Amino acid sequence: MKHLLITGVHSYIGNAVEAYLEQWNKREGQGRYQVDKISLRDGFPKPDGESKWDALLHVAGIAHADISGVSEETKALYYRVNRDLAVETAKWARQAGIPLFIYLSSVIVYGESGKACRNVHITADRKPAPTSFYGDSKYQGELGLQELETEDFHVAILRLPMVYGKGSKGNFPMLVKLAERLPFFPNIENRRSMIYVENLAEFIRLLTESGEGGIFFPQNEEYVSTAELVKEIGTARGKKIRLVRALNPFVRLACVLPGKAGGMAGKAFGSLTIDLGIDQGPEGYRKYSFSESIRKSV
Questions:
Q1: Which Pfam families is this protein grouped with (predicted)?
Q2: Residue 249: how many CA atoms within 13 Å on its side-chain side?
Q3: 2-297: what CATH class?
Q4: Which residue of 108, 165, 185, 269 pairs with 197 in a disulfide if CB–CB is 3.0 to 4.6 A?
């Protein structure tokens, strides 16, 4: 049996991993995985001899917020949660004898793709260069965690692209709404790395089995344009959406607008890809194709 502790009780990814492992147990007819969840607002459990947990999945964090025009107090909160709390939790996990700490980071540590619809391509030799306090708080969390690694305590850092699935937050539900309402959509040929939440859950399951540490870049097996994504959502909903190049100039104009409008357009139509040649850790985690994942998500 493998015993996983999830720190954070209201996380979309944490809840999805718990549900996925429950379904895995039922499908395989064995109780291979046991999951416990705790809220860090209640403090840390007191270590009691040898740890019963094989891995800790740390999902407590702040993301998917409008980070423009925020106060210094709000910025400080991002660092307290995404950096300080993660490091404190890892110190407790190491003291408690938990051999693997899994930290959910983000490709945001490489900067934003949302400015002027620019293209970001992440290769193995590209260094993190966060351009926002959110990205910097995640990267500072990574650095603090790496300092805690020992031969007996491994840290797995997952630099995630957009995570989507049923009930997800962020850009995906916005695109679902657009697919429901629009008969036409701009045919912008951008490219995005994404990962379906159940593919991510399988990746985490395999990490729990291997106990492997390192920096990982789980993603679906193909890049997808925003136009392809919206069209696939429409197909899953039984609706035909025409992709129209005549709308592309309006998108390019929106991308250079100042403020929130330009940022939203850039996030939707910029390119952000992770090189498919980067070592991505455990193999065989992509259980669902892009089309299958969209059908399950909408």
A1: Epimerase (PF01370)
A2: 1
A3: alpha beta
A4: 165
